[in-house]
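Quick one:
INPUT:
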């Protein structure tokens, strides 16, 4: 059975990821794992036995609260048929806790809330960018202000390197949603534009899915998101997809010197990061 992970720290901000993950699990007929990474410091005056009792009560309390919350959200979203499990893992570092948990099992996607607040340094947050850089599975970054809506249009930004293999992974996400897929080639200013019509026909023939292909010129000194801003405004996608090299900083590649005002759309649109 396919499994999807959603992380939560019990904050209101994390509920956007929970809503997205519940809907995704329902569409894909997958199980949902609700992951909470925690760490309690043992007071010096406590005996080991006392601390163990406290930890057991703490875990039981948080699990009960999260079970109640997920059931409440699921009922509101008509997702009560989604099977979910609350799992708590102890780790001093939240990112390490998430990554180590992912590596122990087989999961399809990781949903995590982000703090899309306008300023470049706050668009993702340090924790989210670290998770993206280290995760072996696709990471879906859901803005904290995001509200449930159907994924109707997906925008896929590509440099056209290995786009065929990338499309195979991407279509596994898009097909169950029945979403329209647009592929925008971000070409360097002095680079060659692709033949969109030819590629569209080739994709439809080989992958049996309609994909709209566009080519846009991009100044390499600017942020990638600035390069596709025009396409975002034109198509109003429900989600944006990138395939990222984990050997480099995700934020450095994606944002560079981008202007926060120009990227304001991001705070409303989930971004899905696949590993190249």
């Amino acid at each position: 059975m396919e499994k999807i992970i959603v992380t939560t720290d019990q904050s209101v901000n994390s509920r956007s990821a929970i809503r997205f993950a519940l809907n995704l699990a329902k569409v894909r007929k997958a199980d949902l794992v609700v992951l909470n990474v925690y760490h309690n410091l043992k007071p010096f005056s406590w005996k080991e036995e006392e601390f163990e009792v406290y930890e057991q009560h703490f875990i039981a309390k948080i699990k009960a609260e999260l079970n109640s919350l997920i059931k409440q959200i699921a009922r509101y979203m008509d997702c009560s048929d989604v099977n979910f499990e609350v799992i708590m893992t102890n780790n001093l570092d939240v990112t390490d806790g998430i990554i180590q948990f992912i590596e122990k099992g087989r999961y399809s996607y990781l949903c995590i809330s982000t703090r899309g607040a306008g300023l470049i340094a706050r668009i993702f947050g340090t924790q989210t960018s670290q998770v993206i850089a280290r995760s072996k599975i696709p990471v879906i970054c859901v803005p904290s202000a995001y509200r449930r809506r159907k994924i109707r249009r997906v925008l896929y930004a590509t440099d056209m390197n290995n786009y065929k293999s990338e499309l195979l992974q991407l279509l596994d996400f898009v097909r169950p949603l029945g979403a329209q897929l647009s592929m925008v080639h971000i070409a360097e200013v002095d680079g060659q534009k692709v033949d969109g019509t030819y590629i569209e026909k080739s994709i439809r023939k080989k992958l049996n899915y309609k994909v709209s292909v566009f080519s846009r010129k991009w100044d390499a000194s600017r942020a990638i998101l600035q390069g596709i801003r025009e396409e975002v405004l034109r198509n109003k996608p429900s989600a944006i997809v990138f395939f990222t090299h984990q050997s480099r900083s995700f934020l450095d590649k994606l944002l560079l010197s981008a202007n926060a005002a120009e990227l304001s759309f991001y705070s409303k649109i989930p971004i899905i990061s696949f590993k190249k």
